[in-house]
Amino acid sequence: MTFRFQLHHTDTATGARRGTFTTPHGPVETPGFMPVGTQGTVKGLTIDHVASTGAHMILGNTYHLGLRPGHETVRALGGLHAMSGWEGPILTDSGGFQVFSLKGINKISEHSVVFRSHIDGALIDLTPEHSIEIQESLGSDVAMVLDHVVALPAERDDVQQAMERSIRWAKRCLEYASRDDQAKFAIVQGGLDVDLRVQCARDLASMNFEGYAVGGLSVGETPDEMYRITAATTPELPADKPRYLMGVGRPIDLLESIVRGIDLFDCVMPTRNGRNGFAFTDSGPIKIRNAKHKTDTSPLDASCDCLACTRHSRGYLRHLFIAGEMLGPTLLSLHNLTYYQKVMRGAREAIRAGTLVEYIATKKNQWGIT
Ligand SMILES: [Zn+2]
């Protein structure tokens, strides 16, 4: 069997899960965080950097790679693994989120979404089948179905129609897909409406996907709304399949979602914030450009074993950012991804030990969250 999801522990206090998702390119320990490699690269980092953070699976972007260099070019270069040199598991999104969030949409119909390329303005007709075709050329381990994402807030009718269309598109993706070595994950939509979310989750659960995602969140709603929708959705999903919360989020959001039954995450936050000089640490966030770090010889995070923390001082890292040197964003991205993986590793160990509630309380205390 090419794909397997083994559940090792379920936390009795919260329902949080500790598992292993096996793919053709290796195992993914869950709960797990996937760094985002939009254009076939995690921005500013080499693949050895990314591997050194402890990441198991990374994310690639169908929208961006489909437009540039184009899926046929990626296939000619041996697929996304060979092209990028990343030998571990890769998940690709469907392009839906970018198409619906970049506001280049020309026409949405039952057949497809027609949008303008942000690169050259060309009209692109993206059907569910074409999204799968692109992802099969990319050769990712996990392909996401094309979904219809609505911007929130929206009228309930609009949310419902997009949700129902997402179910029909998911079915088309499943029927079109031809690669046995690529798992297909469905995406639950339904905005902030619990009834729609539950209905969508049940309909998708009746189809044979290898995993399930909760999509359309982290788009401006409050954390409490996101937690409420996540908590209402996960009980409707098959217990023996991995669950992926798309595009989330802050370290606290990851922990709060793990206790609501989520196994996988991705987010640009650690790398984007790293490029902007913002570091996540056990003593709360650090803005490295701040003048108080100017002559500070201490490491960014004394408890971190990444290159930025073991070899360099806060004063040097600040200098790199002030001078506009590219190494600054590289080192802080490396640190933040290392930090995210450490938080997830801690969560996995806590689930195994039955101490997840205490672990989260400790983290909230360290981060100054009440
Ligand atoms: Zn570090």
Principal-axis shape equals globular
Gyration radius, in Å: 20 Å
Q: How many DSSP H or I helices? A: 14
Strand content: 15-25%
- CATH classification, class level: Alpha Beta
- Compute the separation of the termini in Å: 45 Å
Bound molecules: zinc ion
Domain tRNA-guanine(15) transglycosylase-like: 14-366
Organism: Stieleria neptunia
Active site: 93, 266
Pathway: tRNA modification; tRNA-queuosine biosynthesis
Name some characteristics of this structure.
alpha/beta; TIM Barrel; 9-stranded parallel beta sheet; binds zinc ion
Topology at a glance:
Layout (H helix, E strand, L loop, with lengths): L3 E7 L6 E7 L2 E5 L1 E3 L1 E2 L9 H6 L5 E3 L1 H15 L2 H6 L5 E3 L3 H6 L3 E4 L4 E4 L6 E4 L1 H11 L3 E3 L11 H21 L6 E6 L5 H12 L5 E4 L8 H11 L9 E3 L5 H8 L5 E3 L2 H7 L2 E2 L6 E2 L19 H5 L2 H9 L4 H27 L2 H12 L3
Parallel strand pairs: 4-15, 5-6, 6-7, 7-11, 11-12, 12-13, 13-14, 14-15
Antiparallel strand pairs: 1-2, 2-3, 8-9, 9-10, 16-17
Helix pairs in contact: 2-5, 5-6, 6-7, 7-8, 9-13, 10-13, 12-13, 13-14
The chain binds zinc ion.
Zinc ion (ZN) binds next to helix 11 and helix 13.
Protein model, in words:
The structure is a single chain. With 370 residues, the chain is α/β, with parallel strands linked by helices. It has one domain (4-274, 334-367): Alpha-Beta Barrel (TIM Barrel), CATH 3.20.20. The protein is built from 14 helices and 17 strands. Strands 4-15-14-13-12-11-7-6-5 form a nine-stranded parallel β-sheet. Strands 1-2-3 form a three-stranded antiparallel β-sheet. The longest helix is centred in the last third of the chain and has 27 residues, at 327-353. The structure holds zinc ion. It catalyses: 7-aminomethyl-7-carbaguanine + guanosine(34) in tRNA = 7-aminomethyl-7-carbaguanosine(34) in tRNA + guanine. Residues 14-366 form the tRNA-guanine(15) transglycosylase-like domain. The active site is at residues 93, 266.
